[in-house]
């Protein structure tokens, strides 16, 4: 029982981080049909900005910089690169996002080195003991911060002002012709996905240590979480990610910690086999 | 106030579909654009509304040429569209569909406008909290029209209203359109069903092969051989 609770905590923590990336996928996919595989690299970049660069600057300032850069990188890459490729072929834009991820990876490797860098949690090293379950301040912060962001986003989308975004999700062309400025809303959603990715990187770094290569794994696992729940809906993408985090934790705890990554990708393959149309069927038909 | 479409050409990629179309709609009149399937009516409309970028020509409305502008600019300038196939926002409730339309053009008195639309279509009031995707076809058409009307447009553009509508519902909706025109609204109707369209409009244009063949009052058009030929002669 104690072990179970401890694994639930671990699963919620990793699941929340996956969920932050998955939210980005879901938001962008629903709005544009685009799958942004650079979100993992953007998370990594967010981590480096918060922990490695500008060490003389107070950390809270670096965190703010990281969030702002996260939003800007996301918005600029869509409006300058992906959008134009997507008009001709969505797949080209998706592949382009992989290429951009590698560019980010190389920039970080060349400027900060390729070795893993430990990242001290901004929330300190306190550990709470709740009965037999231990939870660190950082783990608690991961769950709380993510929960606040998820709730905030869902509440925003459900509100009267958010109805314009939901209208765009349902039928972008009709929304536009009714006077909704869909290009502007899309830009805002890219900014949101960029901030969420940066937060994921900031929260993940103390758990994983920073490495230029952490992005790809985050990008893929976040994607698995998103499609596990359903890429076309924000709430289910978050739920799928948390489920994936829990699955991974239980598998690591009860079966084999070494094969946990294999499990994640096995889930990925299974989901794609069982309901591939949910994913690919819609990518082909969505227009920019 | 008049919508003046001048020498509008619209194509997909390098293939021109509509060539040098000119037409006019004044506020307070109903004008139809008729023609057989594939004549280029919907493409013309997409060009006017900014959903397809025109390769040439102008779409002038109240002194501004909207041809090169993004689609949303028309709604803000007082042109509302009832799209073909209705295109209501399925996951949104009936009320949300209407609210979103009012807010999209920065409209005030949201509640009053929605009330007025529901007075016009009482069925929508009964269904106000339901997701629009669950309405019947006729109810969705009413919602699509109500959604355009709550924007308080000066010009209403209606694309293929008769498609998939039961005659009774069509009659009901047509009655509403007549009332709107006498209230001073301009209406541009694109219709494959020429007889239905001409019963609602005072003037019309006939399209075929991506061009306007002729235009005139519906009485004049009813006597044109070309109309009869396009619709009945080839059969």
TrEMBL record, chain A:
Membrane topology qualifier: Multi-pass membrane protein
GO BP annotations, alphabetical order: amino acid transport
GO molecular function: transmembrane transporter activity
First-listed, main subcellular location of the protein, grouped into a coarse class: membrane
Superkingdom of origin organism: Bacteria
CC terms in the record's Gene Ontology section: plasma membrane
Keywords: Amino-acid transport, Cell membrane, Membrane, Transmembrane, Transmembrane helix, Transport
Pfam family name, one: BPD_transp_2
Entries under InterPro entries matching the protein: ABC_transp_permease (IPR001851), BCAA_transport_permease (IPR052157)
Compartments, as annotated in UniProt: Cell membrane
Membrane-crossing segments per the record: 6-27, 34-54, 60-82, 89-108, 128-158, 188-208, 214-231, 238-257, 263-284
Family classification: Belongs to the binding-protein-dependent transport system permease family. LivHM subfamily.
Protein name: ABC-type transporter, integral membrane subunit
Taxonomic source organism: Pseudonocardia dioxanivorans (strain ATCC 55486 / DSM 44775 / JCM 13855 / CB1190)
UniProtKB/TrEMBL annotation, chain B:
Alphabetically ordered keywords of this record: Amino-acid transport, ATP-binding, Nucleotide-binding, Transport
UniProt keyword ATP-binding, yes or no: yes
Gene3D superfamilies found in the cross-reference section: P-loop containing nucleotide triphosphate hydrolases
GO molecular function: ATP binding; ATP hydrolysis activity; branched-chain amino acid transmembrane transporter activity
Pfam family, one: ABC_tran
GO BP annotations, alphabetical order: L-amino acid transport
Domain ABC transporter: 3-234
Entries under InterPro entries matching the protein: AAA+_ATPase, ABC_transporter-like_ATP-bd, ABC_transporter-like_CS, BCAA_Transport_ATP-bd_LivF, P-loop_NTPase
Family: Belongs to the ABC transporter superfamily.
PANTHER family: ABC TRANSPORTER ATP-BINDING PROTEIN, HIGH-AFFINITY BRANCHED-CHAIN AMINO ACID TRANSPORT ATP-BINDING PROTEIN LIVF
UniProt name for this protein: ABC transporter related protein
Organism (species): Pseudonocardia dioxanivorans (strain ATCC 55486 / DSM 44775 / JCM 13855 / CB1190)
Organism placement in taxonomy: Bacteria, Bacillati, Actinomycetota, Actinomycetes, Pseudonocardiales
